[in-house]
Amino acid sequence: MDVAQLAESIVAALAPFLPVLFSKAADAAAEATVEKLGEAAWKRAKALWDKLRPGVEARPELKRAAETVADAPTDAAARDALARKIAEMLAQDLNVTSELARVLLAEAKGDRSIAVAGSVADSAFITGDFVQMTIVVGDGRMLLGAPPKTPEPAECELPRLPSGGYVFLSYAREDRDAVEVLAQQLAAVGVTVWYDRELKAGERWVRELEMRIQAARALVVVISPRSKDSKWVQREVLYAENHGVPVIPYLLEWTDFPIWAVNLQVVRTVDAVVQALAGPVPGTPGPLLAPNPFCDRGRIKDPARFFDRFQILRELRQMLSVGNSVSVVGEPEIGKSSLLYQLYLARSEWLPDGHVVFVDLQGTWNVNDFCAEILEALGAEGRDVLALKKALRKSRVVLILDEVEKLNDRRFPPELQDLLRALAQEPTLTLAVASHRPLEEVLPARGKTSPFHNVFTEMRLPPFADEVAAAFLRSRLAETGVQFTDAEVQRLVSESGGHPARLQRLAYRLFEAKRG
Length: 516
Known about the structure:
Blueprint: H1 3-14, H2 18-21, H3 27-37, H4 39-58, H5 60-71, H6 76-92, H7 94-111, E1 113-114, E2 126-127, E3 167-170, H8 176-188, E4 193-194, H9 203-215, E5 218-223, H10 225-228, H11 231-242, E6 247-251, H12 270-277, H13 310-321, E7 326-329, H14 336-345, H15 347-350, E8 355-360, H16 367-377, H17 385-392, E9 397-402, H18 414-424, E10 429-435, H19 439-442, E11 457-460, H20 466-477, H21 486-496, H22 500-515
Parallel strand pairs: 3-4, 3-5, 5-6, 7-10, 7-11, 8-9, 9-10
Antiparallel strand pairs: 1-2
């Protein structure tokens, strides 16, 4: 599948729901669409849109094409035009291409059905076991590998890795006995190994794994039908790749390769593992290239990728912990969503005796969906405003609302804003919201004043200062083997204006150009 076909598949999955995602559909029509196509199709569309939306917002022509389809979801010409614009974006951003393909694959693996290059409205589906996919871009690079029935891979020569240090073994618990044998065989030929045979569960255990992977000379992942479905094995492999640790897949037992392993070169013997670990050989490649470090798109979920906003984060935590509601205001893609999500991730540190609930209104269907999501997080039953009102009065709650502009959508009655304002005056509820413009503008008055007038302390989120933007670039480049000159750093900072998303897009292209 090339990027044009992938773009057509994305449009086929998105088109029926774009009126909802762009808030152009009435409640009855929106609910009819979900009922007709199913909850799984709606979740797939939301997941795709979450990955695609930052690129759409940054490209006016692409956004106009998407809005045209939102106005006429079954218009074939409009859908073709949108697919062409999406294909252009995918050809320029391989990380987004991979992420979107993974969404399609993940959903297809669950329900065995995915719309490909057809009309969802006309029920043109192809079905099958879409566990793996090959995406080919113009230069021939494979982003995701192999069709469903993958032939057994042949042995292939691996890049030689630096000698010294230990090897991290990643495996499924069910393969413990075989891994013990592998560890003994490697130790017998002088290879030091480490694997989590003694660690216990908990945050300290997770942190220990992270440190062990980062310090390893390589990660050997033991491939089997059990490890293919292991979330922890997948996390360890992706973590190693994100930190530039070479990954060697050791084939213990044949299986259809999982999506996270299809681009890796397989070995099937201990000798082949040892050969890769033996050290540099004249005329052979060195260590694997580190991934492009400027690939963050949308909300940053990994605390290790969050940069610089720690003073603002501390101020937010302090204000919310004492019951002061806060409105974070900043231009699109400035980092508001990431800031609020980091606040949510650290909730046990600043509100240990209360509840902190994060809601992205961009992906919330209607008022009942909104209520149900919060009530579920609080461990309460119900999905209506009355049940929400009762639950929010029973315990201390900080409610974090991203994309709060969506409360103006007709899917959310004005009374919901009135309820949130009223509850925010009580000691049990505190609000933290993010918006592109001040609340008085995005949630205008229906009477004399805005429903949230005098409720929030406004906090502006500015671009990075020049010195912070430069430090961000240099920190991301550390240990990648690629360097930007001072002049290049200065140019990137100037052209981006310190805007984090623009800075990353510019730096991504320069990084790719430098490493060829």
